[in-house]
């Protein structure tokens, strides 16, 4: 049976032991997050763990919801009252697929990592968030993004304040992670978002993650995308979501777009957010 102790390289990253090396890791991660809202822990998952996660992803890949549509960075509808150059009116082809959270039972490796108390405590300490809770969305708390050749994810902001991802398997080519750090801190900053969409921004950075890498990312504030993929090998990325308010779930519109369905809880809790950003 896969356990957090066999899945996570606790020799390299002793997240379960207070003080010492853990504090050194926290210092580095906090500096990276403070600088550009993104931090990477290379080889966080053991080779055995990578294989277990890959096997799990292969086993439920047919459960992925695949969608092909056009979206703006906020996943909102077009507003003809705005100028054509406004980011809210800039729509791009989105072709991607997500394996919803209800395909990962408690005994599965990805959920074992997510529900490991030392893991959530470590992530909270990295982010220095006083309010920190597991995402209550039964379709989205722990998911896998499964992308095939030609797929990609256009520029967008995340629904959650912070997202944790685990690189499981890369495509043969492509799939680089591109992001514009912290351009939506304090306000929507439509002018800078427009520059990113136009390809004229000097704020965009490129990151290539390898299987086993853990990424902590403040995607609610940093515009980001995944470049199109090439080759026959699918790209698998596990996504672990935490939020700043208990009981938070995705909007019905967002869940329908990403997972092809909603549950009663999405409609019951619609509009319960901790901020007023568009998405």
UniProtKB/TrEMBL annotation:
UniProtKB keywords: Iron, Metal-binding, Oxidoreductase
Molecular function terms, GO-annotated: metal ion binding; oxidoreductase activity
SUPFAM superfamilies: Clavaminate synthase-like (SSF51197)
Superkingdom of source: Bacteria
PROSITE patterns from the UniProt entry: FE2OG_OXY
Stretches assigned to the Fe2OG dioxygenase domain: 122-245
Family, per entry: Belongs to the iron/ascorbate-dependent oxidoreductase family.
Stated name of the protein: Fe2OG dioxygenase domain-containing protein
Species of provenance: Roseovarius marisflavi
Classification of source organism: Bacteria, Pseudomonadati, Pseudomonadota, Alphaproteobacteria, Rhodobacterales
């Amino acid at each position: 049976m896969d356990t957090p102790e066999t899945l996570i390289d606790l020799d390299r990253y002793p997240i379960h032991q207070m003080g010492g090396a853990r504090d050194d890791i926290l210092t580095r991660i906090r500096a990276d997050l403070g600088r550009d809202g993104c931090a990477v822990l290379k080889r966080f998952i053991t080779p055995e763990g990578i294989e277990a996660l890959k096997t799990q992803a292969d086993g439920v890949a047919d459960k992925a919801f695949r969608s092909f549509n056009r979206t703006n960075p906020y996943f909102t509808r077009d507003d003809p009252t705005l100028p054509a150059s406004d980011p809210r009116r800039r729509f791009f082809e989105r072709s991607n697929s997500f394996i919803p959270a209800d395909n990962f039972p408690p005994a599965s490796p990805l959920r074992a990592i997510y529900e490991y108390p030392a893991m959530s405590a470590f992530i909270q300490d990295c982010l220095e968030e006083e309010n920190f809770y597991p995402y209550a969305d039964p379709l989205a708390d722990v998911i896998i993004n499964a992308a095939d050749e030609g797929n990609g994810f256009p520029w967008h902001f995340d629904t959650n304040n912070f997202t944790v991802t685990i690189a499981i398997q890369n495509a043969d080519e492509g799939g680089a992670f591109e992001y514009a750090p912290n351009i939506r801190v304090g306000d929507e900053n439509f002018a800078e978002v427009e520059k990113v969409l136009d390809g004229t921004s000097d704020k965009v950075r490129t990151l290539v993650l390898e299987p086993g890498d853990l990424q902590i990312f403040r995607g609610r504030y940093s515009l980001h995308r995944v470049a199109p993929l090439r080759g026959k090998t699918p790209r698998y990325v596990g996504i672990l979501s935490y939020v700043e308010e208990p009981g938070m779930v995705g909007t019905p519109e967002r869940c329908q777009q990403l997972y092809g369905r909603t549950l009663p809880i999405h409609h019951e809790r619609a509009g319960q957010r901790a901020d007023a950003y568009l998405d």
